[in-house]
Structure formats: C-alpha cells, structure tokens
Amino acid sequence: MSDLLSYKNYNGTVEYSKEDKCLLGKVVGIKSLLSYEGNSVQELEQEFQNVIDGYLADCKERNVDPEQPYKGTFNVRISPELHRNIAVYAIEHGKSLNAVVEEAIGNMVR
Q1: What does pLDDT average to over the chain?
Q2: Which residues contact 74 (CB under 8 A, 6 or more apart)?
Q3: Which of 21, 25, 63, 65 is in the most buried spot, having the most CB atoms within 10 Å?
Q4: What is the three-class DSSP state of 22?
C-alpha cells in the first residue's frame, strides 16, 4: 500500500526518484497536473501544501471554481452477470442499486 499526503481535502502521492535522488509526487483525483518535490519528507509535505494553496489562490484570483476530488460519483465496469446478481439482490432487499453498491464498498474499506 502506498502512502498518500492529505491537505484541504486533496491527496497526493509520495514517490522516490532514484535518478534525481529526491522525493516527488502529484495531486491525485483531479484533472489538473499539480506536482511537487523535496529532499526530505518534511520538505515534500510542505511543497505539497504549497502547491495546493497556490492552486486554490490561483483559482480564486481567476474567479474559477477549483476542481474538487471525489465528488461522490464514478462509473464502474463490471461483468453483466455480476450486474444482474447485484440488481436482483437490491430488488430482493428493497434497496436501490446505488445503495447496495455503496454499502458493499463501505463494508470493504471500513
């Protein structure tokens, strides 16, 4: 499992570049490319926070809404058989398909 940095509802990766001998990362969950690097964990964390703060300030200055990661909707491709099985399960339990999928995912990651 890889570690993620978190700040103001944004997440970023932590990677090591052997070639450059530094830590680096990028913000995940948004389309904009926001990257950062540092020579120590503390420096990387600070640069991650700086890039988020800079991004939010830039969006405010340009009067545009910043991208929000994890809006609560996403598309999932599953086999037709699994789709049918979960739909039947939802009907039998008086729940919506979305409610059943959310419950199943919630049980997996809690």
Answers
A1: 93
A2: none
A3: 25
A4: strand
